[in-house]
């Protein structure tokens, strides 16, 4: 009798679900028909019956009683997360957090993450955040959040655990390539205020701009950063290093504006998807902010999405030299769609392509000049080298003559740069190499 009742309920539920799907499906396909006239779709009745049967079995047979809302939200979440690592169901609280993220202020540990093989994969740590300070690296796999294993959790579940009250601590267990055993790191949650752009002068009139994330104002901030550098330099820049390392991406329009800032014309990026709204093309307008001077773009395995759009556009348009290591390879477009219950769904709707037609997805951008990750240490030379001026009876140089006559000469121990910049160039091999590449490009322009 009980089994019969369950079956009856199941078939009634099946009819309701099928009726709802047919009604919704008709509206969706009618809308698409005005755009691309797709082929007629058949409703997978067997699979829908299986869904209803599983739903009923869980409702009646599972060891604990489960709320219907929880079951249905789980089904929706599973449906989206099974598509790809970036599609997801966002309950109302998470939908609000997504908006905060694009504005550049949110709470948590400060890293861009995705899912891989059931674990949380770090796409990149964000500058000046607990994650970066603790030594989290792009490519790290987080296998435990505190005492809780990550396996079996959705990305939304993991993010909820990582976010929390500022000042509270969370221990992460991380698997890293090249390490024999998992690493344990304790991070203190904080309010993450992401400053999109930083700038400084390097040597010989070469500017340096670091973009840590693409936000709504990044394009405008880039313009301001270059003007600030030119004022500090006292004249137009001779060249520029644009640092996009460990930049996980962000707002598409910001990536387009940054690319456009260095181009006078030509295609920047285009997208292709199944619906008309996902097919877009973005082209540059006249106005190169550094008037054709050499640009080197630094990238690495943590450069993703919007970073790859910029690198791909400037590489294809022969406007910049790309240096570093292969980028992450996230070449898909996610659209945030609001739902009636206050939640949202983030769904992949298109793929990005560079101006030459290269797909970024799962391929990334290969640099023109590869710079391997190395550890640089200053060599402490105990024996001083002997120079001409150390030889007895040597001919005096101009500076020595001036000093002998009591005339002061300019001593510049840091080669015209601040002590802080000198330390950065000494420690960061990749910035140093990028600066040398810009110098070479400047020389090549002068020899034309």
Automatic annotation (TrEMBL):
Single GO molecular function: endopeptidase activity
Cellular component terms (Gene Ontology): outer membrane-bounded periplasmic space
Gene3D superfamilies (UniProt xref): 2-enoyl-CoA Hydratase, Chain A, domain 1, 2.30.42.10, 3.30.750.44
InterPro entries xrefs: ClpP/crotonase-like_dom_sf, CtpA/B_N, PDZ, PDZ_sf, Peptidase_S41A, Tail-specific_protease
Gene Ontology biological process: proteolysis; signal transduction
Sequence ranges assigned to domain PDZ in this UniProt record: 95-163
UniProt-listed PROSITE patterns: PDZ
Pfam families: CtpB_N-like (PF22694), PDZ_2 (PF13180), Peptidase_S41 (PF03572)
Alphabetized UniProt keyword annotations: Hydrolase, Protease, Serine protease
Renumbered residue ranges of the record's region Disordered: 390-415
Keyword Hydrolase belongs to the record: yes
Family per similarity comment: Belongs to the peptidase S41A family.
NCBIfam families: prc
PANTHER family: CARBOXY-TERMINAL PROCESSING PROTEASE CTPA, TAIL-SPECIFIC PROTEASE
Identification of the protein by name: Carboxyl-terminal protease
């Amino acid at each position: 009798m009980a089994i019969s009742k369950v079956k009856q309920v199941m078939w009634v539920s099946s009819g309701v679900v099928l009726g709802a799907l047919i009604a919704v499906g008709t509206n969706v396909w009618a809308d698409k028909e005005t755009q691309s006239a797709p082929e007629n779709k058949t409703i997978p009745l067997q699979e829908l019956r299986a869904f209803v049967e599983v739903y009923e079995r869980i409702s009646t047979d599972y060891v604990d009683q489960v709320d219907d809302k929880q079951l249905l939200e789980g089904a929706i979440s599973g449906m989206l997360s099974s598509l790809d690592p970036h599609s997801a169901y966002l309950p109302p609280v998470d939908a609000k957090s997504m908006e905060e993220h694009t504005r550049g202020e949110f709470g948590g540990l400060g890293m861009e993450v995705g899912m891989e093989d059931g674990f949380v994969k770090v796409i990149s740590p964000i500058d000046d955040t607990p994650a970066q300070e603790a030594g989290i690296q792009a490519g790290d796999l987080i296998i435990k959040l505190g005492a809780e294993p990550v396996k079996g959790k959705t990305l939304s579940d993991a993010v909820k655990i990582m976010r929390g009250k500022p000042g509270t601590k969370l221990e992460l267990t991380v698997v890293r390539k090249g390490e024999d055993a998992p690493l344990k790191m304790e991070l203190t949650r904080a309010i993450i205020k992401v400053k999109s752009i930083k700038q400084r002068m390097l040597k010989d009139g070469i500017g340096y701009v670091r973009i840590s994330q693409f936000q709504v104002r990044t394009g405008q901030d880039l313009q301001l950063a270059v003007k600030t550098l030119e004022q500090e330099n006292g004249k137009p820049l001779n060249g520029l290093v644009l640092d996009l390392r460990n930049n996980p991406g962000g707002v598409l329009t910001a990536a387009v504006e940054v690319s456009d800032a260095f181009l006078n014309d030509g295609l920047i990026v285009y997208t292709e998807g199944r619906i008309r709204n996902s097919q877009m093309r973005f082209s540059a307008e006249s106005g190169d902010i550094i008037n054709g001077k050499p640009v080197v773009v630094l990238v690495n395995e943590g450069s993703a999405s919007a970073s790859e759009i910029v690198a791909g556009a400037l590489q294809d348009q022969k406007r910049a030299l790309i240096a570093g290591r292969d980028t992450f390879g996230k070449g898909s477009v996610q659209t945030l769609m609001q739902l009636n219950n206050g939640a949202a769904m983030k769904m992949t709707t298109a793929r990005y392509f560079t101006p030459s037609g290269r797909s970024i997805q799962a391929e990334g951008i290969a640099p023109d000049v590869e710079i391997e990750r190395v550890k640089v240490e200053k060599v402490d030379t105990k024996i001083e080298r002997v120079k001409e001026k150390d030889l007895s009876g040597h001919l005096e140089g101009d500076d020595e003559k001036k000093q002998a006559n009591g005339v002061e000469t300019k001593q510049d121990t840091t080669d015209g740069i601040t002590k802080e910049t000198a330390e950065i160039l000494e420690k960061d091999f990749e910035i140093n190499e990028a600066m040398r590449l810009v110098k070479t490009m400047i020389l090549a322009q002068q020899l034309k």
